[in-house]
Amino acid sequence: MEPAQTTISPSTELVRGEVYFFSRAKLPPVLEIKFDRSHLNDVTQRVPFAQANHGRIHGETLWKAEPLIPAQQEWQFRIELTHGTYAAPDKSGSFDYYSTSGCKIWLQNGQVYNYQPAAAHSMARVVKIPHFTGSLSKRALYVYLPRGYDQHTFKKYPLLYMHDGQNCFEGFVGDSYSGSWRADEVATKLIAQGQMEECIIVGVSNGGHERIAEYLPPYAEYHPFSNEEEDQLSPIRGRADRTYAYYANEVAPFLKQYYRVLDGRENTAVCGSSMGGLFSSYIAWEHSEFAYSYGAMSPSFWITRTDPLNLNSPMAIVERFRNRSPRPLRLWLDTGTLDGQTYGDDGKHETAYARDILQENGYVEGDDFRYYLDEGAVHHESAWAARLDKVFKFLFPLRA
Fold it and tell me: Going by C-beta distance under 8 Å and a sequence separation of 6 or more, which residues neighbour residue 144?
């Protein structure tokens, strides 16, 4: 079930936008705009560019167009260079469109910016901090720095925390135990196309065999069974409160000291899957002051059942959704439909039930609360990678 596409009604507020384009074209290019992606050849506006200034090099021009665009909504554009030739996202002169929600944008070297970028700048990269030491066991942090971080020193960036950090980035897929989310590749592509705000992403590694305890809420217990026998092993008590304190009191100050991150919960997001999705939900409900936007992908709500042998017993975290007042936050909630290729359901019933309870508590699907069912998707990094673009666009859409 895809999130709804943006369709502009006649009553939608339109505002005057600004589009800047560096080009060596001799004749003024033409900006083509459409609002509804379902009609690929439906051009809503054609706006000629006018010369705004000299370009970055001899023979280049900075062109400017001022179209009417929908306020705070996504719109699509491409630039006609000559008849039938376009500046488009894949750089091959295709008929594809850029898609963005920005009101004032620059198109430079095929990439979209919501500020005037340096003429040349660094590419996005991931920095590994191999032995971060704190109150939890020693582990690696992985820090994604967006394009131009070195040159655009006037900028500070929103911050996205991701759990299971060793699985987050394709650049360090060798550190992963089950494949990567390709978060570096996804973010870089979305940012270049004007669909995501430039941000810093920190992947905080889990503690290996301590992972379940680290991400499990302190009001829950996990009762594992031996793989070889039906004997029940010692219960695992949740320590998510300690893990949250580690994020808030140790990781966050470190990042603020060494990187240009924006302060404030409105500039902070948290995202995880499986047990990490459960941990994101725990932070959202118990410590909503930490961040404003949360992503819970295939969350393991089932593990918080009050009676692990009774599939109808209440899930402790969902009962908190039910019985406590709504939090001022944005939440992405999703699920697949399979655990493996031919079995399980990725906890889709538990996740749908949590969605229903949240709606009963006042949450309404829209800009601040999104539920997504990924039909046929399995409980695996490859599936989360495949839909991560949707999550990132929700967490940090391009600012106007």
Answer: 124, 125, 126, 169, 183, 184, 187, 200, 201, 202, 203
- 320-360 pLDDT per residue, tens: 999 999 999 999 999 999 998 777 899 999 999 999 999 99
Structural domain boundaries in the chain: 14-113, 125-395
CB 172, CB 127: distance < 8 Å: no
CA diameter of the chain: 78
pTM of the model: 0.92
Which top CATH class is 14-113? mainly beta
CA distance 375 to 334: 11
User: Distances in Å between the alpha carbon of 233 and those of 116, 237, 306?
Assistant: 59, 12, 17
Dihedral sign of CA atoms 279, 316, 245, 268 in order:
positive
CATH top-level class of 125-395: alpha beta
Q: CA nearest 109: which of 232, 196, 21, 183?
A: 21
The Cα–Cα gap between 106 and 176 comes to: 36
The token pair that represents 7 in the structure block:
């369709």
Residue 232 tokens, joined: 């029940």
